[in-house]
Task: inverse folding
């Protein structure tokens, strides 16, 4: 069975060109996504991929209608190939049911892996350079060092509860406790309860 998949683009909201091309490719069933690729959830693509069986062929008008990135495209086509499903892109004249088409996708897979390696290397190099300049990666602390000192000062007043201090700084009690511990500031309220009578 030949099954088509069409998806509108942000620039072109009219899918008729795709639908006509898929009809011309003798698709027996066409799944048509009306949301653009900006939305992560693509229910029609999910339904389309579920429908495909061994021996079927998935046809798209253009490669970018199926996937948002080279990595995404390679993963989808490899999964289809593993399931015994062929893939054709009409605009790029790629057909994985032929040896030439399979070769193209092996090259695409190698390029996607190469791109992933480059991104990883750049990320590691960037983090190392930032560390060399004294910067740390990760999320910015919820409380600045000044906030932590203010919180400790507030907590030294026995009339003020930890919940009130946490609320004042718009953080949870757990975050407040962690910030105090990180700064090496003993919790004044805990210290007060441990003080000898």
Result:
């Amino acid at each position: 069975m030949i099954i088509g998949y069409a998806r509108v683009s942000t620039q072109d909201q009219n899918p008729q060109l795709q639908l006509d091309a898929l009809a011309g490719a003798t698709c027996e069933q066409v799944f048509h996504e009306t949301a653009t690729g900006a939305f992560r959830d693509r229910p029609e693509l999910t339904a389309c991929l579920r429908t495909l069986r061994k021996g079927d062929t998935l046809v798209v008008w253009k490669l970018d209608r199926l996937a948002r990135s080279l990595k995404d495209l390679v993963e989808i086509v490899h999964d289809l190939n593993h399931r015994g499903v062929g893939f054709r892109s009409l605009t790029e004249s790629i057909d994985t049911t032929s040896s030439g088409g399979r070769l193209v996708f092996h090259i695409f897979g190698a390029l996607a892996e190469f791109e992933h390696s480059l991104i990883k290397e750049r990320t590691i190099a960037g983090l190392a350079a930032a560390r060399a300049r004294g910067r740390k990666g990760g999320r910015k602390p919820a409380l600045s060092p000044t906030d932590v000192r203010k919180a400790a000062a507030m907590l030294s007043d026995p009339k003020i509860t930890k919940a009130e201090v946490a609320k004042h700084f718009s953080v949870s009690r757990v975050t407040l406790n962690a910030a105090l511990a990180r700064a090496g500031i003993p919790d004044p309220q805990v210290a007060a309860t441990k003080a000898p009578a």
Q: What stands out?
A: The longest strand covers residues 2-7. The mean pLDDT is 84. Strands lie at 2-7, 29-33, 57-60, 86-89, 94-95.
